[in-house]
């Protein structure tokens, strides 16, 4: 299985030949779900892109501490692709500013992943 997103929607120059031989699953998860102003957390789906997130945050006077330069980059792509060289000497790479990830496993169960405290 792989995502059914067509190659022209990606930022990569790589041709995903595997998409022709694998079962393509369409995932239209591109929304900003919530902005929690008290906790200063933005909850988004993996295909929400930086243009959407930046426009919404700018409208309330906020920005991300690690802000990639390309509006078409998706949150999921930045996390899985280690931020495409977008980084901050204070906050690190894009995935370092994420406080949690929710993953749907092959059996359909939902897993919430957060940082483990070593204290």
From TrEMBL:
Family matches, as Pfam families: FAD_binding_4
Entry keywords, A to Z: Membrane, Oxidoreductase, Transmembrane, Transmembrane helix
EC annotation from Swiss-Prot or TrEMBL: 1.3.1.72
Residue ranges annotated for the FAD-binding PCMH-type domain, each copy included: 1-119
Recorded catalytic activity of this chain's protein: lanosterol + NADPH + H(+) = 24,25-dihydrolanosterol + NADP(+); 5alpha-cholest-8-en-3beta-ol + NADP(+) = zymosterol + NADPH + H(+)
UniProt key word Glycoprotein: no
Record's subcellular location: Membrane
Keyword flag Glycosyltransferase: no
Gene3D superfamilies named in the record: 3.30.465.10
InterPro entries: Diminuto-like, FAD-bd_PCMH, FAD-bd_PCMH-like_sf, FAD-bd_PCMH_sub2, Oxid_FAD_bind_N
PANTHER family the UniProt entry points to: 24-DEHYDROCHOLESTEROL REDUCTASE (PTHR10801), DELTA(24)-STEROL REDUCTASE (PTHR10801:SF0)
Protein name: Delta(24)-sterol reductase
Protein encoded by which gene: DHCR24_2
């Amino acid at each position: 299985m792989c995502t059914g997103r067509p190659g022209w929607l990606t930022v990569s120059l790589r041709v995903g030949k595997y998409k022709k031989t694998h079962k393509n699953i369409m995932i239209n998860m591109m929304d900003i779900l919530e902005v929690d102003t008290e906790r200063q957390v933005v909850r988004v789906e993996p295909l929400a892109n930086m243009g959407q997130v930046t426009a919404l945050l700018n409208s309330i006077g906020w920005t991300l501490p690690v802000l990639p330069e390309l509006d078409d980059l998706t949150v999921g792509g930045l996390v899985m692709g280690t931020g495409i060289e977008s980084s901050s000497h204070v906050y690190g790479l894009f995935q370092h500013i994420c406080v949690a990830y929710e993953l749907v496993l092959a059996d359909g169960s939902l897993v919430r992943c957060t940082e483990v405290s070593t204290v």
